[in-house]
Design a protein that fits this description.
By secondary structure, this protein is an all-alpha fold. The chain is built from eleven helices and two strands, in the order H-H-H-H-H-H-H-H-H-H-E-E-H. Strands 1-2 form a two-stranded antiparallel sheet.
C-alpha cells in the first residue's frame, strides 16, 4: 500500500462526503432560489421530451444497480440461489441497457443545448463542466460493466475489491488494500464518480436531492376566472361573486356592504 493508495482510497472519500454535505447545506442556506434545474422547456420541448425520460429513467436503474452491486455482498446473492455467472449476465443486460439509455439521453440533451440558441445562451461554464464529468462517469461505468463480465473475474471483479472497500467506509475502517487491488478501469470510474459528487451541490444536478413532499400536504390552488359565464341560478356571475349569485343580488349585497354604519 502506497501513500497514493492511502490518500485516494482512505482520505479522499471522506473529503468528498464533507464537500457534498457542506455544499448542499451552503446551497440551501444561501442559494435557495438557485436550487433548480433552470428549466429551458419554454425554448424547446421536442428533443427534451425524448432525452429527459431516457436520461432520468436510465440513471435511476444505474443507481439501483450500483446499490445492489456495492452494498450487497456476494455471499448474500449466492445464498438466495443467484450464482456468480448469473449475476454477471444480469449485470451485463440491465447495466448495458440502462447505461446506453442514460448516455443517449444525456447526448440528446447536450445536442439540444448546443443547437438551440436560447438554451445555449443560458448554458454556463458550470453546466459545461458538469456535462463533461457526467458523460465521463457514464462512459467509464459502461466500460467497467463490460470488463466485469468479459474480463478475468478472478482478477477484476468489483465485488471482491470495490464493494468491500465501499462498505468499509461506513464503519470508518477503509479497506484500502482491497481497493488498491482493483483494476485501473474500476479505480478510474470510482475517482470520476467521487469528482461528480464533489461538484454535485454546485451544479443544476442539486435538484435531485429535492423531493416535493410538501405537495402532498399543501392546500389546493383555487383558480377564479374573470370572464363572464352563466351561473346556475340565472344571470351573469363574475369571477369574484359567489356561485349562484345573480347580478342584481350581487349588486345589492355590494351596495349594502359599502354603506357607512
Amino acid at each position: 500500500m502506497t501513500v497514493w493508495d492511502l490518500l485516494l482510497w482512505g482520505v479522499l472519500p471522506y473529503v468528498m462526503v464533507v464537500v457534498l454535505v457542506g455544499g448542499l447545506v451552503w446551497r440551501y442556506r444561501y442559494d435557495q432560489f438557485g436550487w433548480t434545474t433552470r428549466s429551458s422547456q419554454l425554448y424547446e420541448s421536442r428533443l427534451l421530451r425524448i432525452g429527459s425520460p431516457l436520461f432520468h429513467f436510465g440513471i435511476l436503474v444505474v443507481i439501483v444497480g450500483h446499490v445492489v452491486g456495492l452494498l450487497i455482498p456476494k455471499a448474500w446473492t449466492e445464498a438466495v440461489g443467484v450464482s456468480e455467472d448469473l449475476y454477471h449476465v444480469m449485470a451485463l443486460g440491465l447495466g448495458t441497457v440502462a447505461g446506453v439509455a442514460t448516455l443517449v439521453g444525456v447526448g440528446i440533451l447536450i445536442y439540444r443545448r448546443r443547437t438551440t440558441g436560447p438554451v445555449f445562451m443560458a448554458t454556463t461554464k458550470n453546466d459545461k463542466t458538469m456535462y463533461v464529468v457526467l458523460v465521463a462517469a457514464i462512459v467509464a461505468g459502461l466500460a467497467t460493466t463490460v470488463i466485469s463480465v468479459f474480463g478475468p473475474h478472478e482478477e477484476v471483479t468489483y465485488r471482491d475489491t470495490v464493494s468491500p472497500w465501499f462498505r468499509s467506509l461506513f464503519v470508518f475502517q477503509p479497506d484500502i488494500a482491497s481497493m488498491s487491488e482493483a483494476s485501473f478501469a474500476f479505480q478510474l470510474h470510482t475517482l470520476i464518480g467521487m469528482l461528480l459528487f464533489m461538484i454535485w451541490p454546485f451544479t443544476r444536478l442539486v435538484h435531485a436531492f429535492t423531493a416535493p413532499v410538501h405537495y402532498l400536504f399543501r392546500p389546493y390552488i383555487v383558480y377564479r376566472s374573470r370572464d363572464q359565464r352563466p351561473s346556475p341560478a340565472g344571470g351573469i356571475r363574475r369571477g369574484w361573486a359567489p356561485v349562484g349569485t345573480p347580478d342584481r343580488e350581487r349588486d345589492t349585497v355590494r351596495r349594502t356592504e359599502g354603506r357607512p354604519r
